[in-house]
# Entry
Amino acid sequence: MDLTAKRRVAVTGLGLVTPLGTGVEKSWPALVRGESGVRRITRFDPSLFDCRIAAEVKDFDPADFIDAKEIKKMDTFIHYALAASQMAVDDARLSFGAGEADRVGVHVGAGIGGLQAIEKYHEVYRTRGPSRISPFFIPMVIINLVSGQISIRFGAKGPNSCAVTACSTGTHSIGDAARLIQYGEADVMIAGGTEAAITPLAIGGFAAMKALSRRNDDPPRASRPFDSGRDGFVMGEGAGVVILEEWGRAVRRGAKIYAEVIGYGATADAYHITAPPDDGEGAVRCMRRALADAGIRPDHVGYINAHATSTFADSIEIHAIKEVFGAHARKLAVGGTKSMTGHLLGAAGGIEAVFSVLAIDRGILPPTINQEHPDPACDLDTIPNAARQARIDYALSNSFGFGGTNACLIFRRPDLA
# Structure
């Protein structure tokens, strides 16, 4: 095909498993109300840890989505992804025959993967010996088994892969999936991110890096992007999945189109294993690439779902936004939804893509809660503490990960197409 004539990509289905609820109609209203999903950790006894809080998924039962005999063959991060994918497929009313199966693909990733199973079966090995390790252990923990399990469930025989790019995973997965449709390799993609890494090793490891909040006495107020009192991120878990569909196919079958994916950028800082450069130049280039790919001016964008982890890097992201958007940055709404969900690592970009699409579709900007003492370096409109009604024509979603990996997506209202 002519590679200069990219095909258009519609978002036709949404699926969420988050600390605010399982399903879009639980998570989104709680997000708009400004509810926090952060509580004291219940998955294990956190008493010995410097950080004893996290944003756990609280209302999820894998049996609602997966046959009982299959549940034990998968780690929790795969459970979340299968559930979010099923909800997204149902929302899109997606169906396809055998003749279309090789045009339907999956691109769902994770940043860490099956750490719960790794910890569990290391203990089994240590206490009971190697013969007691489950034969399903390896398929439980390998990250591409997320996409593998989803493809098996739905019979999707097209491109099947995953991104594993730390906190940028979900955004890279959706961007890469959109490219496959744009350039004719697939007609439908199930795409997003998942994570379930609230475990002793993960909490202990991030705490050892001094990356996590220690506001243990007040969990709901611990995640506070852009606030001068922020002291680290709060671990979250869950999954966010979208159905991407070639525009003409979606129109022909009468699908609801939530938004159009029009821009994708991906860059590297080439600077440090965990910290961005002080000037955020990698993020600057990434946002500019997404704008160029979308073919729009910076002043078209009305809403940014910022990476905004509640760490020192928040002010660097704000600096980068000012560099990219210039005077228009003062007119932007820049939200930090991790203030409510915590940081879902590899799933963050997936759920935040869904949030960005819903902001366009429903005309509501979720708040950034816990804005009590705004950081003077974070002096843009961060939608403090209360949601706001607004018509958004173009939304940008940012994700930046360890290793200096950056990803940005731009979504457009479907009625502007």
Notes: The longest helix spans residues 76-92. The chain has a mean pLDDT of 97. Residues 10-252 form a domain with the Peroxisomal Thiolase; Chain A, domain 1 fold (CATH 3.40.47.10).
